[in-house]
Amino acid sequence: MRPVLLVVAPGDPRKRMFILEQHAGHVRILENGKLLPKPFLTLKDLSFSNEQGLLGLAFHPKFQTNGKLYVNYTGNDDHTRIVEYQVSAANPDQVDIKTRRELIKIEQPYSNHNGGHVVFGPDGKLWTGVGDGGSAGDPEENGQNPKALLGKMLRLDVDATTPTPERIHMGVRNPWRFSFDAKTGDLMIADVGQNLWEYVFAVGGSDTSNRNFGWNVTEGSHCFRAKTCDKSLFTPPVVEFPHEEGCSITGGFTYRGKALPMLDGRYFYADFCTGLLRSFTWTRDASTPIAAGWVRDHWDWKAAIDKRGVLSQISSFGVDHDGELYIVLLTGTIYRLGPKA
C-alpha cells in the first residue's frame, strides 16, 4: 500500500478521508473506517523508484462547488508535475481523468529530494515544497539560486488561466510535509537534513516576508561545508535534532481538535527512521525579519504512547474534519491520536 498522505476535502458532508499510495499511484477513499474498493484516482504516467511517485494531494477551498483537486507526482520522465483534476459529475467517488490540466512541470536532475507536498494556504493559493533536486549536498546549487524552482517553497494561483509559480521562501533541502495552523495561519516546514541534522522552520501567519532558510550554506542552524559561515541572512530553525536521534523528519500539524484540549496549539512532528514523536508550542518573534521565535514545552511522546514500539516509518500526518490528528505509517497502518481509553 505504501501510504504517504491522508487528507480530507473541505466541507465534505460524508467526511471521507483520502489516502495516497505512493508507488501504486492510487488515491483511495477511507469512509467510516473502510476503504472503498475502487480508487478515487489512479495515475499511470508515474515514476516510482526511490523517493518518487504520488506525493501530494490538495482539494480546492471551493471543492464542494467546483470539484477541483490537485496532485503532485513524479512523471514517467522523472520530473515533478502539479496537475489539476475535477471529480466526475456522475460519481463523486471518482475523478474524471479527462479534466486533467497540467499547471507546472519542474525538471528534476536526480531521483531524490522531490518534496511533493501541496497545501492551500490561508491566502487561498496552492503552496508546494520542492526539494533541491537531489543527489547529496545540492550539487546544482539550487537552494541558494533565486532563479531556480528547486529548493523553494512555491505558491500558485490555481484560479489563473496560466498559473505562474511564485518563489516565496528559499534554501530548503527536502521539505517533507508542511502545514498552516488552522487558527493562526503560522507555517511550519519540516526539512530533511543531509548528514547531521533534522529541523523545523516556522513563519508567522501575519508575516509576509520572503525567507531564506540557508541550505546549502547551512544545515539547520549549522554551517554545512565550512567550519564558519555567514548566517546573518538566514532564518534559523525553531527546532532541530541530531542524527543520533533520527535521520529523516516528517512534518505534522498544529493540533486544533477538541478531543484533546490540553494539546491545543501544539505542533507535532516525527522521524521516519526512529519513530521519534514530539510536539511543541511556538510564538513568533517579530523583532527582525529573520527571527526564529520561541519554542516552549517541547514534549517527547514516544515513550508515553508507543510502549509496544509500533511507531516506525512515520511517513505523514493527517487531520480529519474535526481537527483530530492521525499518524500515517508507510507500512500501511494509520493511527488516530485520542484520549486514553
Question: Could you explain the architecture of this structure?
Answer:
This protein is mainly beta and 341 residues long. The strands form seven sheets. Strands 1, 2, 3, 4 and 5 form a five-stranded antiparallel β-sheet that branches. The protein has a four-stranded antiparallel β-sheet with strand order 6-7-8-9, with no helix packed on it. A four-stranded antiparallel β-sheet has the order 10-11-12-13, with no helix packed on it. It has a single domain, classed as TolB, C-terminal domain (Neuraminidase). It has two helices and 26 strands.
Write the layout of secondary structure elements.
Elements: E1 3-8, E2 17-21, E3 26-31, E4 34-35, E5 41-42, E6 54-59, H1 63-66, E7 68-74, E8 80-87, E9 95-106, E10 118-120, E11 126-130, E12 152-156, E13 166-170, E14 175-180, E15 187-191, E16 197-203, E17 218-219, E18 222-223, E19 239-242, E20 249-254, E21 267-271, E22 277-283, E23 294-300, H2 302-305, E24 314-319, E25 325-329, E26 334-336
Antiparallel strand pairs: 1-2, 2-3, 3-4, 3-5, 6-7, 7-8, 8-9, 10-11, 11-12, 12-13, 14-15, 15-16, 16-19, 17-18, 20-21, 21-22, 22-23, 24-25, 25-26
